[in-house]
Amino acid sequence: MTRSFTSSNCRFSHRFSTFIATTRDSSPYPAQISIVGGGLAGLSTAYHFLTKIDDRNASVTIYDKCPVGEGGASAVAGGLLHPLSPRGNKLSHWGLEGLFATRKLVDEAAKFAPHCVLREKLYRVALTDENVQALQHVATNVLPEHCRWMEKKELDKLLDTSDSLGGVELYNGCRVIHVPSYLRGLLAACQLRGRVEWKIIDDYMELVNHRHDENVQNDGSRIWIFACGAGIIQEGFFDEDARAKLPLQIVRGQSVELTITDESVPREAALCGKYVTPLLDHNRMLVGATQEFQEEAVSPRDLQEELKRKSYKLAPALWDKADIHRITCGYKVQSQRNNLGRVPIIGRLGKDWIFTGLSSRGLLYHAIYGEKLVDMIFASQGTQKDSEECPIAKQYPHLKWWK
User: Fold this and answer.
1) What is the pLDDT, as a whole number, of residue 387?
2) CB 241, CB 279: distance < 8 Å
């Protein structure tokens, strides 16, 4: 069963339907795309498609199991936007490029969801001498325009802790984002640029059958993009051999939402391994997240103990003066580590296109990789060649690392 929610210039539907749209004969670009997954990857792709295409008939259909911002890993993300590697000792691959691209999308989304930006800065804390050396190097030599070194006394006072050895303040585009609000704002920004239909689908197998029937009837003229994270592996969109070749791994992540009981508790975002970050509710903070590879989830008691042990030095007052509100859980797709670190997968898989593997870098990477995916799709239209042969992939050869 499918339920649809559309912008004002789209029709409503309670069953599968296809927009009737034609492109100008001079345009080789697709006027219709279907995106499976309405999280960070899917909405970034929709936004860039509608922004780049010059066709008033262009339309996007987004399929998801939940309303926007209410399901998947994106809906429970920590929301920390910065360009540093997970260890904080260097820039991530495309770190600044990703930061600038995401900042642009956040600014667009904030026009419709002004509260999606919770903070304009965050803090990377040094808890070891190795952390100190790395962060001082970053602040002085790598990223001086986006971060500054803070001595222990200043940072301890800000975070109400006594365990730091100093740290860096990340700013100038580094932000704390309430991701569900951001996704709703980004969908509204998409709707401003073209026809968008959001279809809630209860059974992905219905979508698999629909896609097959549509491709038979229309010779595959509609572009399908799979940006559904763990669903690419878990659902039956691709055959087993194709899925097995993808260098991906599903990781469960659990976090704890805390309700603050004392107004004196700091509401700043801080990270060092684990993170603490504010939420939309002034009295709520999120602490996360686990990295679980086993089939059985960590129990609530063990989860609380693990997160408290690994984040207590970041926010002792929070743990001492807050109550557990709820546990959140999401499944993210982690790509295989290569010489660039863990970077997303974009490109053609069979007749369709995929965007997956954002892992814990979703906010940093979703905008720039979504844009490159759209460029790649446009550049590959009219040819059956593999996406790695298109001009975009040749310009950025690292995009085909997973091939």
Assistant:
1) 55
2) no
